[in-house]
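pipeline: protein-struct stage 2 | run 1193 | DNA polymerase IV
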Amino acid sequence: MLPGDSPPTTRRIIHIDMDAFYASVEQRDDPDLRGRAVAVGRGEGRGVVAAASYEARRFGVRSAMPSRTALRHCPDLVFVPPRFDVYRAVSRQIHAVFARYTALIQPLSLDEASLDVSGTYRDYGSATQVARLIRAAIFEETGLTASAGISYNRFLAKLASDHRKPNGQFVITPQMGPGFAAALRVEQFHGIGPATRARMNALGIFTGADLRDAPIDVLKRHFGKAAAFYAAIARGIDDRPVVADTVRKSLGTETTFERDLSDWNEARNVLEDLCAKLWRLRTARAISGRTLVLKIKYADFRSVTRTRSESRAIATEEMMRDQALVLLRMFFPLDRPIRLMGVTLTGLEGNSGENLAQMTLFDDSTC
């Protein structure tokens, strides 16, 4: 059980996050790449970094960074093309390890999942020991390292998994949870992106403690339905269950700009990069969709969406990009600057043609 934790009803959640997954697979399979700064992605033209090794991250290279920017940060950066079929196969190996310890597994991506071991951890002595066994088995069977966070809810387990990266684990007990959350900067909270952070900072909210102490009516006025969730996580409270076998009804990616955009060429370049990223996500998950949704959030926080559907699944990255550009043209000329742009694929089907429903995945990054 978690150290210092006696209540029998407390959940035991483990968050497993593979370390630099795509890049680590490439370094595992090609000895010449080991110890070198590696980026998975397209290095020429307007390519972007899909993943970066820890050696590359030391130079400031990050996922979703334009390739040209990454090369300025690290001139010796080695680009390798992604191999999503290999990543999916390794992911299946990893999830098979999870299944030995619990049936309550909520995959979040190919390399990340939440596990509820509340009903099984006693067989191994503690949730901490379960995490150690899982990480050891993953390394033995794949040659890859994983980090783990162990806590009494999903929010804190996710935060804990980042605390000892790479190849480590960290426990946040019920006694530690409220203080741990209070000490964080709000941008460290999973789900608070650059735009929300800026709005909180404008209200004088910079830390979890500031968020905890903010009047709930002020939070509701500025953040609507999300206010209750923000107030809860600032206190280390998260009642969301681990939901097994969740499937997606949409797949999307969006970016919040450091400065608002008004120029067509800049907006087009951002949209093309988003489409490239969405196509990689779609390929990695072996799904397809018929409907594309473009979301625009203006500088005044007003959001508008435009949708385009096809009779059959979008078959190529070029087709996705062309459809997205048709939607973007509907917004121009602009009557106000844009602060956020996102593109989403819906009407999803798996490889066998089955419809997928119930969960939306968004990857919120900063441009």
